[in-house]
Model the fold of this input.
Amino acid sequence: MKNTNLIYLVTGAAGHLGSTLCTLLHERGERIRALVLEGENTAFLACTGAEIFTGNVLDKASMRAFFEIPAGYGAVVLHCAGIVDIGGAENPAVEKVNVEGTRNVMEMCRAANAEKVVYVCSVHAMPDLRKGRVKREIAGFYPDKVDGAYARSKAKAADMVLGMAREGLPAVAVFPSGIIGPYCGKGNHLVQLVKNYMNGKLPACVHGGYDFVDVRDVAEGILLAAERGKTGESYILSGGYYEIPEMLAAPFRRGWQRWRRRSPNSLQKSAGESPSLPPIRCAFCTKTGATRTIKRRQNSDTARANCTKRSKIPQDGSSNRAK
Done:
C-alpha cells in the first residue's frame, strides 16, 4: 500500500468478526469506518471510535457516503458482510448478499480507487477432502464441487473477486475456518453453541469435530493480508482441529464463574484444575438416533486448549498452509 494516511472501511462491522476487526484497528490507532445495517446495535462499535455508516451491500446508493474518501487519504476495504447459513435448504438471500452484495462492494472499491481490498470468504468455498487430507490454498473455485447454498455462494464470490483482481482490483481473499472467541458481535453460531451449553440449554451435540480458529487471530490475519498479501492470492486462516465435546469443555478450565465474569464468549487457554463438568450427550448420525455420554477429562493437563495459535501470513507473502 502506497498511502500512509489510510482509512479502514469495514463492512459487516456489527458482526462477530467485523466488531473484532474494529477493536484491533482501534488498538492500533487507525481511522475506521464501519458499515452496518439499519437497526443494528452499534453501542460496541461506538467504543472503538469508528465512524458509523448505515447501508446495505445490495444497494450501492446506500454505500456511497461510506466509500467517499477525503482527499489525501487511501482506503483499505475489509469486506466481512455476508450471511452464514449452515442449513442445507436453499436460501435466496444467501446468494443475493454473498454474491451480488460482494460484487457491489468490489465495484464500489474499484470506483473509490481503494489501496487494498480483503474479501473474507470461508473454507467452505473449497471442496471437502477425504479424511486425513489437509486443505491448502487453491487457484480456482467451482460452486458445483461444494455442498450447500452457503458454500456455493462463497465459491462464486471468491471466483468473482479473484477474477476482478486479475483485471487490476488490488484484492486478496482470506478463508477462515470455524471462528470462535470473544467480543460482542452477533451472528456467530459456534459462540451461541458454547453459550447454550454453558447455560444448560444444550442436551446433546454432534459427534465429531472441526477446525476452529480464534476470532482475534482471524482479525490479525486479515490485517496482515491487507499489509503483505499479494493481489490475487488467497490465504487460509485456521487454528486447529478439536472434537466438539472438547471445544465445549474448554471454558470450564477457567472455572465457570471466572469464565462468565471475565470473558463470556471466549474459549481461552487456561491452567489449573477444572471444576466438575456436566455430562454432554454426543449424538451419532445413525438411523436409530442412538446417543452415548462422553466422559470428559477433568484435568486440563490432558486436554488441549490451543485456541490462541496464530494464523499469520509470512513476510514474503507466500501462502499459509492449513495445519
Summary: Helices lie at 16-27, 43-46, 92-111, 149-166, 189-198, 215-228, 244-249, 256-262. Residues 6-187+211-239 form a domain with the Rossmann fold fold (CATH 3.40.50.720). Residues 255-323 have pLDDT under 50 and may be disordered. Residues 92-111 form the longest helix (20 residues).
